[in-house]
Amino acid sequence: MRILCPILSACLAALIAAPLLAADAAPAAPKLYVLHQEIVRPAGLKDYEETNHEIIAAFQQHRDMLPHFAFTTVAGEDFTYNFITPVPDFAYAGTVYDLVDKVGRTLGEAKWADLLKRNGATIESMNDSVFIEDPSMSYAPASPRLKPEEDRYFHFDLYYIQTGREADADAVARDFAALFRARNMPDGYRLMKLAFGHDAPLLVVSVGARDADDFAAQDAKMRKTLGAEGEALFARAFALTRRFDRRSGWVRPDLSLAPAGK
């Protein structure tokens, strides 16, 4: 992960320090995340991960310089690596950029430059975006089926909303959350709204599971339990959607940076 490259080039940076689907104890204010995405050249995969381990090792050795910086990495089967970092506000992203550069330079100018060069040679493309999670559009069960540490596989539904229909999409999202609460569904989800990045308006629904088979089984149970009301909500959602996509990936603890002290 070439953190120094445009993680903030357009403006900012983001992913998740705590488990992605941990239940909130109480309603919370919207949360801000920066998503840094890198698509890796297949032939460079081994070198890519090795150089990322070197970069993360440098961060871990200097946690005093980056005490609040943390990210979770989700790697897809399509050679896409997603680095998700929580940020308190837009201004903090710029601060992180300067601190990361400072940490890297503790390795020595030449070594740091060489590390970034080797890492960059393995990357086909990169993209940065900022997402906001509004808890009123997400769902966290009181008694989750899985413990946070069991959520190691994540499925993402991407709803590219028709321009001008954002308010309608928000209403559908809140109706979904209300129906999940009414049915006391055992699996939660997070809904993220694209605040800055390519192809807005976009809503992303993130669901955690043990693996792909576990997700498929629970997804089928979910749709059956929601019944006709759920089908009607999905129909409303798709009526507002100009494009739909599905992605998935595994949490990579070895390529993630835990919060300081954890």
Query: If you average the pLDDT, what whole number results?
Result: 87
Share of helical residues: 25-40%
Number of helices: 5
Spans of 5+ residues with little confidence (pLDDT < 50)?
3-27
- Count the E strands: 8
CATH first level of the largest domain = Alpha Beta
Q: How large is the radius of gyration?
A: 19 Å
The CA-CA distance between the termini, in Å, is 21 Å
Secondary-structure class: alpha+beta
Which strand-content bin applies to the residues? 25-35%
Largest sheet: number of strands, sense, barrel closure: 8 strands, antiparallel, barrel
**Rough outline:** elongated
Biggest sheet strand line-up:
1-3-2-8-5-7-6-4
What CATH architecture of the largest domain would you give?
2-Layer Sandwich
Order of helices and strands: EHEEHHEEHEEHE
CATH domain topology of the largest domain? Alpha-Beta Plaits
Number of domains: 2
Which structural traits does this protein have?
single chain; alpha+beta; Alpha-Beta Plaits; 26% strand; disordered N terminus
3D architecture notes:
The structure is a single chain. 34% of the residues lie in helices and 26% in strands. It has five helices and eight strands; from the N terminus they run βαββααββαββαβ. A hairpin with a 4-residue loop joins strand 2 and strand 3. The longest helix has 28 residues, at 212-239. With 262 residues, the chain is an alpha+beta fold. An eight-stranded antiparallel β-barrel has the order 1-3-2-8-5-7-6-4. Helix 1 runs antiparallel to helix 3 (109-120) and helix 4 packs across helix 5. It folds into two domains: 31-131, Alpha-Beta Plaits (2-Layer Sandwich), CATH 3.30.70; 136-249, 2-Layer Sandwich (Alpha-Beta Plaits).
